[in-house]
Amino acid sequence: MNTLRHFLPSGTFMGAMSRWLRQCSLRELSICVVLLGALMGGCGFTARAYSHCGEPDSPDYITCTINASAIVPVGSDTRKIVYEAPGLIRVVHGTSCVSRPSAWISGDDNLLGFRVQQQESVPLTIADSGTVFLNGWDLRYHNDDHHLQGFGAAIANITEARDPNSGQFVLNWDAGGVLSDENGDDPYDMCYSYTVVFWNRSSIAFDAVALARSLPFRHPSGSDPGNDTALRELPGFSDNAYGQGVVLPQGFAQLWTTDGDHHLLQSGFDLGTPTVVNNDLSWTSRTLLKDNDQRRDYMGAELVTVLSYESPKMLHPQTVMVESPNGWVPATNEVPLAPQDSSWFCTGIGNPTGEAHYRIDNVPLEYAVPVLRGWELGYLCSDNHVRHMGASITDFHFERADNATSGTLFYTLSLPLSDDSGNLDYARAVVDVFGMNALGAGPHPIDVPGTNHPFTPLPCTFGSTTIADGDSVRAYLESSPPVCEPCQSEARVCSNGTLSGSFTSESCTVRRPGRGQVCP
After folding, report:
1. What is the pLDDT, as a whole number, of residue 304?
2. Cβ within 8 Å of residue 104, ≥6 positions away
3. Which residue, among 318, 158, 305, 317, has the nearest Cα to 246 in the 3D structure?
4. What angle do CA 300, 301, 306 make, to 5 degrees?
5. Are 44 and 114 in contact (CB under 8 A)?
6. Which of 98, 227, 347, 485 could be a cystine partner for 481, CB 3.0 to 4.6 Å?
7. Could you report the per-residue pLDDT of 184-220, keeping only the tens digit for each?
8. Which pLDDT tens digit goes with each residue over 108-150?
């Protein structure tokens, strides 16, 4: 969150977020807070944060409430090294899942939502920089289908560390997601797909820099003046030091802000295409949330990471190839996000949601990764309940022959939408290609088979002591406080490679007064 405060005036952002919360009705407040948490650090909040975090307009209010959220274990995590080029780059793709009893957990702390903490590391001999971005989400109610009040998924609190003792570059992040109707009392599963790109910054490798992380943008109100449709624009912007600038998705949320929960007819999101003018990077995202009505007030939001300098590239292919029973056939790589009317006499045949395999030919990059830029899910005839919804890149690989000027990018898309009645549905997605060209001549990527591995929390180091994840160590403010003053200490707890607290001394010795001296 320090990155967020550095790149965005905290007073402006905090005031806007608190106004968002105040615009929610009492019955919607819980869902507003959950989605806010999802976008700003894995959805979570404790009711006590209202008091101990101060006023909503204070600069530290949002950070405080995020850090008060419930940290839960990952239910399952599957990840693999997709490819690497020794000394230059490593690409990792994974999917993590969590099962929750409800969006709202009633008890002493009245917890809303959750967050998980994860990490991935790479030897410093391969890479010394990296980032992680959201490449998909999947939400499913356990018991029957339900209305929607809001939903979202996000990666946030991305931090990095270089550990010379272990020879590792470590990337840490939090993640969360929510699916809820008005009551927030139904159990649900949340999975998110993520892609980690590690690279080496050197004269023969890459000059990429994560210029900004966790930049948030949201609609300031539930509707737009003069716009009577459910399609809304969401402008984004960032400084850009050099190069074309690459914007990577970290998260999104959508929330109906009036009249409780509703059926769903259409939902969609498209991050958009950035442009650079005078070192300013800007883009316009589009959102769509609709039932059978022409328009209901709703709010959308997004989180992004910005990469800068010359090496990072983003390409948008107009056409991709999709695998069909008749072989590979061309398909349009766009999401129209056009609001539709319901039809009670609908006889149309849609593009049923599910999983499909795609490829992009002639990618003019040395190293390439697919990015889920946008998606649209909908029912064909009328609005309905939701049981299962999502949009994810579940797998991919990149093939480029040595000394070739281009390669082929293969990826698998999962686009589920369903209720319990088998109503006709459709889904589509838009995928961009994020890639890097080495500053010098780079070798071709090498697939690394059989590298699936579980998430393992990192230990912490405090002075000469190694602390296991979940354990604590006693630390002191000073090793030798002033005469007559006591030692001040705190317990620093290890959480996935990060120690809580700030005291730095391993020991402390109280200084007694000398002969003829008396302590006050």
Report:
1. 94
2. 30, 34, 110, 111, 112, 180, 183, 184, 185
3. 305
4. 150
5. yes
6. 485
7. 888 999 999 999 999 998 767 888 888 888 888 889 8
8. 445 556 789 999 999 998 999 999 999 999 999 998 999 999 9
Overall size of the chain counted in residues? 520
Q: What are phi and psi of 411, to 5 degrees?
A: -150, 160
Q: Whole-angstrom Cα distance, residue 268 to residue 322?
A: 21
Distance between CA 260 and CA 270 in Å, rounded?
25
The pLDDT, as a whole number, for residue 241 is 76
| Cα atoms in the 13 Å half-sphere on the side-chain side of 251 | 33
Q: Token pair 């070739």 is at which residue?
A: 404
Count Cβ atoms within 10 A of the Cβ of residue 492 and give its class: 0-12 exposed, 13-18 middle, 19 or more buried: buried
What backbone phi and psi angles, to 5 degrees, belong to 195? -125, 130
Residue 294 phi, psi (nearest 5):
-60, -40
Structure tokens at 61: 């209010």
Please state, in angstroms and rounded to a whole number, the distance separating the CA atoms of residues 41 and 66. 6
**Cβ proximity of 334 and 270 under 8 Å:** no
Nearest CA among 497, 459, 494, 463 for reference residue 159: 497
**Listed residue (282, 306, 127, 124) closest to 210, CA to CA:** 306
Give counts: helices (H), strands (E), the chain.
5, 32
Residue pointed to by tokens 């949009």: 391
In angstroms, rounded to a whole number, what is the distance separating the alpha carbons of residues 39 and 249? 11
